[in-house]
From TrEMBL:
It holds the Pfam family Ferrochelatase. One of its GO terms (molecular function) is ferrochelatase activity. It catalyses: heme b + 2 H(+) = protoporphyrin IX + Fe(2+). This is Ferrochelatase. Catalyzes the ferrous insertion into protoporphyrin IX. Residues 1-12 have a biased composition (Polar residues). GO terms for cellular component: chloroplast; mitochondrion. Its main location: plastid. It is found in: Plastid, Chloroplast.
Amino acid sequence: MNQSMSMIRTQTPSPLSHPPPPPSLVLPQAMCTSQRIYCCFGQMEARVNSNMSKPSLVAKFSSGWTETQSLFLKQTVNNYSLPLGALLTSKTQDVSTMAFNGDEKIGVLLLNLGGPETLDDVQPFLFNLFADPDIIRLPRLFRFLQKPLAQLISVLRAPKSKEGYASIGGGSPLRQITDAQAEELRKALCEKNVPAKVYVGMRYWHPFTEEAIEQIKRDGISKLVVLPLYPQFSISTSGSSLRLLESIFREDEYLVNMQHTVIPSWYQREGYIKAMADLIEKELRNFGNPDKVMIFFSAHGVPLAYVEEAGDPYKAEMEECVDLIMEELEKRGITNAYTLAYQSRVGPVEWLKPYTDDTIIELGQKGVKNLLAVPISFVSEHIETLEEIDVEYKELALKSGIEKWGRVPALGCEPTFISDLADAVIESLPYVGAMAVSNLEARQSLVPLGSVEELLAAYDSQRRELPPLVTVWEWGWTKSAETWNGRAAMLAVLVLLVLEVTTGEGFLHQWGVLPLFH
Ligand SMILES: C=CC1=C(C)c2cc3[nH]c(cc4nc(cc5[nH]c(cc1n2)c(C)c5CCC(=O)O)C(CCC(=O)O)=C4C)c(C)c3C=C
Ligand SMILES: [Fe+2]
């Protein structure tokens, strides 16, 4: 464990005054046995017994504490070895004035994928997406081909994508919905006495993350909470956005000094789980016999290698998320059969299984008649809910023998959900600028709160090569021959691809590799 990971930050012992001083004492965790931690408002003092593995609350003296506050303190101390004093402030008082100095400006950066707003945007949007090494990661030898390949694939895919976007109104609704979510989150934070500015940073289209960061600098934000709008962490989504942020932060003096924290995933939060269960419960009522309906969770897929080779926690988080939603439904007396499958695969490599389309056909064959689709990787309506699920999968289901099909809407600006996001932000504030949770066992989710750098170090740190979505081959006997043979092979592949696309014939069509995308 490195030194910074084994530290805890505590409130300096101070008189019981108001407001508290900022956290200033940093102690190696190993030295914190029976560390006394004073909280300097509300007349309270907490003593924490801590060792390398897990701190625990051993004593608490307070006046005027509610049951919830005591429980919160206990859970917090037992789960995290981080700034206790600040955590106490966040639950008891106005964070903007208590946890931080009055001149601190809090910002929340919502990260999302972005989508083309017009049909003309589709090809350049796809180029940005495929030029991202977290989406198509070529072997080192072929990295120089990332952009030409992105150009080729985006041109190849654009007609099919355009058709999809045309059928949902000529563009993606993602920007509008994310802007509305940002505004609702701002209001919810304000109502909870945490005035903050909320920014939207998209990965592949406007408003780009770079644009949001420029605004954050102009606004003089001093403490930033980074909140990817993906409930589950994946290298291909939150990971890619965080990698971009890391490179932006690294090159900018203002940003290097701006304190931040990241909420990497939040699929396990009670408010989110309850909001999902509410939507499912409501939609089940539209069926004649709700208890006979198969609940069909359809998650966005990722290539299998992300999970098996790069350590992407996405699959594990997804499965846990589905279990939590089903547990919540069970508490409400809803014990329907359910299943989880993965949609939207792209290219010929293996993705997470079972695939949504195969599963729909199988369910039909098994005699399932009522199916309720639940999109689970997204919190906004977009092409993959409005077109892929509502049109393509519905059609497939009806063809496969399903008689009644329903679909749960995406969360959008659902109040329980927005309020829970606001709580997630508030609970993360004490971690802004602090070290990440060092105790693996104490993590509440598979990916812990932390800084951009730490999160990237925890997952996919070596950025191992992943099988590209378009498979290329290598041969040769010496290092240099391998390099040049590889490059020649890649060029040959490119030429053949161009010929295939222009003539519509060739070996890839014969092998069923092209058309590349479904
Ligand atoms: C090529 C590989 C892709 C991976 C891996 C991938 C993962 C992934 N994506 C989302 C969420 C969204 N994807 C969206 C669009 C989109 N994604 C891909 C490819 C991969 N996604 C493509 C080619 C596209 C463009 C649309 C299309 O042509 O099909 C969107 C935006 C949709 C919109 O309305 O504009 C979202 C959102 C997740 C959650 C995920 C992995 C977990
Ligand atoms: Fe995608």
